[in-house]
Amino acid sequence: MRDQIIRVKRYEKVPVILVGNKVDLESEREVSSNEGRALAEEWGCPFMETSAKSKTMVDELFAEI
């Protein structure tokens, strides 16, 4: 997925938001917030962390889209 996004963003203005989900499961995290932010910076896009279960940042994500 990463390679496809990078390839498309080279040639087209495609809106991208990098989203980390299930932020409510902190003990099962596989990617740190810092890693997510760094990757979003590399891709030149916003980074948000959400949880559908606790409704954390879900409305804000859709507003951003």
Give the count of helical stretches.
3
Strand content: 5-15%
**What pattern of helices and strands is seen along the backbone?**
HEHEH
Instruction: State the secondary-structure class.
Output: mainly alpha
Average pLDDT, rounded to a whole number, is 86
Helix content: 40-55%
The rounded distance between the terminal residues' Cα atoms is: 19 Å
Shape: globular
Number of domains: 1
Would you count the extended β strands for me? 2
Which residue ranges are poorly predicted, with pLDDT under 50 across at least 5 consecutive positions? none
Protein name: Small monomeric GTPase
Organism: Gulo gulo
Pfam families: Ras
Keywords: GTP-binding, Nucleotide-binding
Give your account of this protein's structure.
The protein has 65 residues and is mostly helical. The protein has one domain (15-64). Helix content is 43%, strand content 9%. It has three helices and two strands; from the N terminus they run αβαβα. It has helices at residues 2-11, 33-43, 58-64; strands at residues 18-20, 47-49. It has a two-stranded parallel ribbon. β1 (18-20), α2 and β2 (47-49) form a beta-alpha-beta unit. The longest helix is centred in the middle third of the chain and has 11 residues, at 33-43. The relative contact order is 0.22. The model has no long low-confidence stretch (mean pLDDT 86). This is Small monomeric GTPase. Keywords: GTP-binding, Nucleotide-binding. One of its GO terms (molecular function) is GTP binding.
